[in-house]
Design goal:
Helices cover 40% and strands 16% of the residues. An eight-stranded parallel sheet has the order 1-2-3-4-5-6-7-8. α3 links the parallel β3 and β4. α2 packs parallel to α3, α3 runs parallel beside α4 and α8 crosses α9. By secondary structure, the protein is α/β, with parallel strands linked by helices. It has nine helices and eight strands. It is globular, with a radius of gyration of 17 Å. It has one domain: TIM Barrel, CATH 3.20.20. The structure holds zinc ion.
């Protein structure tokens, strides 16, 4: 059964030494395609270069993460637009708001996010959205601009029911990670995930972050490694299936079809 990882930071330095082995393991574990997340101008370029090595297997996004919103300059728009003109780049992002860590001033995050919406409008590509502790402001901005882009996914959703229902009302898609496998902080997410219609759900690892907490140490590549990787995606899908009371094959089938449609994959 096929799985598509819609968010993996494969240009993170932790993958520098063994990217080929990582890709091979994910193929072996039925992960049939990976969308590599671009989080800055440089990493979006790196991600695109990486797809040259695995043209059938990888696609990318291009954007500037809210943590990096301070780096957004007037010329960034044109640089991102140039990247987005490549057919391997399937979505605009990662972009959005992170008021949890506030690594960039909030006003800069808001301005950069609005520019990414403009990019989505101009390129007709979907938005890949990050939100942490900022759902009210994010909802406000999206409501204001909703007619300017076709599709968007709130990736790595970890919020509460109120935020989830607002995003669904705005006709957005929801990305779920191994956060749901955490028996402590993932508990409230596990309780509400089944409210996501199956045609609005996609799955992701957010590797190398968010290693599923309930992963048996013997399943890990290096028992001591805390690095997450796309080969663990079926494990995440199984946890999600549990929350829905469905067989994992159904989660695989629906999320794969949704990801193909959303990102325009063949
Ligand atoms: Zn994110």
């Amino acid at each position: 059964m096929p799985f598509i990882d819609i968010g993996a930071n494969l240009c993170n330095e932790s993958f520098n030494k063994d990217i080929e082995a990582v890709i091979n393991r994910s193929k072996k574990n039925d992960v049939t395609h990976i969308v590599v997340t671009g989080t800055s101008e440089a990493s979006s370029e790196d991600a695109l270069k990486l797809t040259d090595l695995y043209p059938e297997y990888l696609s990318t996004t291009a954007g500037i993460h809210p943590h990096d919103a301070s780096s957004y300059q007037a010329f960034s728009y044109h640089n991102l637009l140039a990247l987005l003109s490549n057919e391997k780049v399937k979505a605009v992002g990662e972009t959005g708001l992170d008021f949890n860590r506030d690594f960039s001033p909030r006003q800069k995050q808001i301005e950069a996010f609005e520019k990414h919406i403009e990019l989505a409008n101009e390129t007709n590509k979907p938005l890949f959205i990050h939100e942490r502790d900022a759902h009210r402001k994010l909802t406000e901005i999206i409501t204001h601009h909703r007619d300017q882009f076709s599709d968007g996914v709130v990736h790595c959703f970890t919020g509460e029911k109120e935020a989830l229902f607002k995003y669904l009302d705005l006709d957005l898609y929801i990305g779920i990670t191994g956060w749901i496998c955490d028996e402590r902080r993932g508990k409230s997410l596990a309780a509400i995930v089944k409210n996501i219609p199956l045609n609005r759900l996609m799955i992701e690892t957010d590797a190398p972050y968010l290693l599923p907490r309930d992963l048996d140490p013997s399943q890990r590549i290096k028992p001591k490694s805390r690095r997450n990787e796309p080969s663990y995606l079926p494990h995440i899908a199984a946890s999600i299936a549990n929350c829905y009371g469905l067989d994992v094959t159904e989660i695989a089938e629906h999320t794969t079809a949704t990801a193909k449609r959303f990102f325009g994959l063949n």
